Amino acid sequence: MHADDARADSPRSPIDRRDALRRLAAGAALPAVGAMLEGCAIEKPHSIEYPILRRQAAPRLTLRGDPGYEQQRAALLFNRRTPGRYPDLIVHAESAADVQAAVRQARASGMKVSIRSGGHTWCGPALRDGGILIDLGPMRTHVISAASRTARVGPAMTGGEFIAALEPHGLAFPVGHCPTVPMGGFLLNGGFGWNAGAWGPACLSVRGLEIVNASGELVYASENDNTDLFWAARGAGPGFFGAVTRFDVALHPLPRAIHSSTFFFRPGDARAVGEWLSELVPSLPPTVETVAYFRAPPSSMSRSDGRAGERVLAVSAAAFADSQAQADAWLEPFIKGPPGVRADRRQDEKETFRSLHDGMARLYPQPRRYGVDAIWTAAAPGELLEQMAARAELAPTPESFILIALLPPPPPGPGPDIALSMFAPAFTAVYGVWADADLDAKGDAWVRGTAEQLREKTVGHYTGEADLYADPARGRRSFAEANWKRLSELKARHDPEGIFSGFPGAS
Ligand SMILES: Cc1cc2nc3c(=O)[nH]c(=O)nc-3n(C[C@H](O)[C@H](O)[C@H](O)COP(=O)(O)OP(=O)(O)OC[C@H]3O[C@@H](n4cnc5c(N)ncnc54)[C@H](O)[C@@H]3O)c2cc1C
Fold first, then answer.
1. Which of 113, 119, 278, 362 is the most buried (most CB within 10 A)?
2. Residue 15 maps to which CATH number?
3. What is the structure's pLDDT at 305?
4. Whose CA is nearest to atom 6 of ligand 1?
5. 115, 245, 360, best to mutate for ligand 1 pocket (most atoms within 8 Å of CB)
6. How far is the CA of 222 from the centre of ligand 1 (A)?
7. Angle at CA 14, nearest 5°, toward 8 and 20?
8. pLDDT, the chain, mean
9. For residues 485-507, average pLDDT
């Protein structure tokens, strides 16, 4: 809720907030925020004035202690588990100028800032205790230049909105697998989106960024400008030391024939299926994306064969081709299936990005409470799938699932010089999904127990989906050693006062 709306709900509030806001807009003196908050339900923060923000008329402010604050705080996150961390002030920024004012205000007031684009990071690092949370949620515009195959994208625009806007131009982008994933955090973390095998992590398609730096200046970073920021912005995720207010990205031709094929196996066949995948995946073209899930069967399947309640091992391959014949040829080795293992069913679909997104959205229901961890592992696929089959049986709810993506070996030679630097042959993401807060402890124990089982073969984590609060080393373990060192040095140089919150536990 805007401070402007607060009085009607808060008869105990000692001053008229509408009047305060009117005075604020007019640049008149305002009582300390601490005074404004007296008598409100939530403990008031220390007494702060916000003169710089006061001069910037546009952004809505939600103050800790406003009656609507708690509702606002919870609405910032996709995950219905709202961590017990309470920013002093939430600035709903609508422009880069609003963000600059908020950063300058934070500097002047000795406060930290945290940034939120769409609040899709499971563990909620955008929510910190104290300081200013800059919500970029209103910044979701885009401009497409079909002629130059480029676009300018606001940080809160979602992948679903972006791909829908690109399709009429015959263009595409490696957007996240769910339609609601916002571009901001997704691109900063690296972004493993659709067709990443061919198009690479989405951050490789970033050509430039408009950034509010730690001094509150608006700067541009690209291959030629502010190259340190450009290096860090492609992978640093929550460790980035700036607020990105716009991404300039390169676009890709829209694949004209997207086709998916999914086998449904019994979890008891996990080892054989894993061994088959370890042989198969390196032989497939990079335009075929293969993922295995231990999940509840889709509703159509449980109805037809009476296996409701039982888990399945679903293995899906999606080909991003230019003709149906090309897609069929690419999927042919997959469709042969594992020797000696019978699938309960195989399902083929002609797809669009929209239908791919719709399918994934069903796996991530809302509103739900999520416990998630994401692990890069060097475990052999047969062993890994067998281990995860056993863990999936212990899942706290039928909606919980485990996803395993096996990656082909990277091309020979050095990879791109960007902050993103953690890869391994298999990516495992553990999703605990439940509705009832009473299941929190059980759900967390399952997620953390599964991560623990993989510990010996864990190579590292992915900042976009890992539980960064499980262990302060999660941030460091999400990068190659040299990249972590450079990132830490750059943060110290470009944000010496530590204005940006950084990785949980690292500042
Ligand atoms: C349903 C679902 C599906 C997902 N699927 C995928 C997937 O397919 N591939 C994948 O790679 N990831 C996926 N993710 C993870 C997702 O990409 C990351 O969690 C990402 O950070 C979410 O972006 P956000 O803008 O909502 O981040 P937020 O939660 O808003 O922010 C998290 C942190 O990122 C930083 N940050 C965010 N925006 C900015 C900005 N503009 N400037 C500076 N710092 C910023 C801040 O430190 C902030 O605290 C998925 C998440 C969900 C919930």
1. 113
2. 3.30.43.10
3. 56
4. 176
5. 115
6. 21
7. 70
8. 89
9. 93
